[in-house]
Amino acid sequence: YTGEPGVLQRAIELDANFFDTAESYNAFGDEPGLTERIVGRELREAAAPAFVATKISARNLRYDDVIAHALASRERLGIDVIDLYQIHAPSSTIPITETMRAMERLVAGGVIRFIGVSNFNVEQLETAQDALYSSPLVSNQVEYSVLRRAIETDILPYCQEQDITVIAYAPLALGAFASGPGSDVIAQVGAEAGKKPAQVVIRWLLDHDRVVVIPKTDRPERVDELCGAAGWSLNGEHRAALDAIRA
């Protein structure tokens, strides 16, 4: 997100209230955490309740670094508490026990509200859960779409069983839903349901238990289309047709 006028404001008008960013998201390439600053500014100007999530990079997962980076993200966002603080990716060198000790300190200190991870497999989720004592692991942000469904093998059922919310990034399969395998099926379902193809594939995700989505856009006119995935459900026939799609 690069701060185009009206994008976040329009999303809030349409009752969107979950906004995800990261310390590594840098809209213009020359200032660390710039996107956090932009999101924070836009949300303050909108003056509406929002659930704000951000992420710490895998290279910053040492205990002292986690504390320092969380405080820096909170300052850039301009909020009192980060609602969801996520590990952006697992580290192959820093013990998860050290990282989670810092995360629980942040919860206890009122800097963050919930602990999440991103791009964790089942084994890594189990290790992360075992490292937590006073706070649950509430989310795992992973790629998931009607065309990219690898998590259905093990990650999705594990998260559903453990009450871990799956935050689906790239829910539009980077645009492949419009021209890739199954695009004709998606278009037909949309025509029959009176919805646009993007709304259909996002709704398919939302109809799963414990799945939320974070579609990305920099265009105000696109916000209405994306938010139009809320407030309705696919019927059984349409869901079965989408379930049958394979990339």
UniProtKB/TrEMBL annotation:
SUPFAM superfamilies: NAD(P)-linked oxidoreductase. Residues 8-245 form the NADP-dependent oxidoreductase domain. Gene3D superfamilies: NADP-dependent oxidoreductase domain. One of its GO terms (molecular function) is oxidoreductase activity. InterPro entries: AKR (IPR020471), Aldo/ket_reductase_CS (IPR018170), NAD(P)_OxRdtase_dom_sf (IPR036812), NADP_OxRdtase_dom (IPR023210). This is NADP-dependent oxidoreductase domain-containing protein.
